[in-house]
Amino acid sequence: MALSAGVNGIYLSRASLDVAFDDSGRQINPLTVRLTGNVAGVMKLFNRCGWQAEPESGASLPHQYSLMAGQGVPGKGD
To answer: Domain for residue 37, yes or no?
Structure first.
C-alpha cells in the first residue's frame, strides 16, 4: 500500500495485533504500526491515553513505530 505523508493514518496488520496481545487482551509485545500525516499530534494523543510511541530505528518500512501501553493504565498492559 502506498502511504501519503499528507494523509493522517494509523496502519497496522492483523499479524501485528496477534503477536502484540494475548488471548485475554493484555499487551505482551510492542505493537508495530505505521503512522502518517500529523504524527506529532497522534503521538500527543497516544501519550494522553497512556501509550508510548517510539520510532523504530532501522525499520524496513518508512513511518514505522512501536506502541506500548503505559504502566498503570487499566486494561493496557499493567
So the answer is: yes
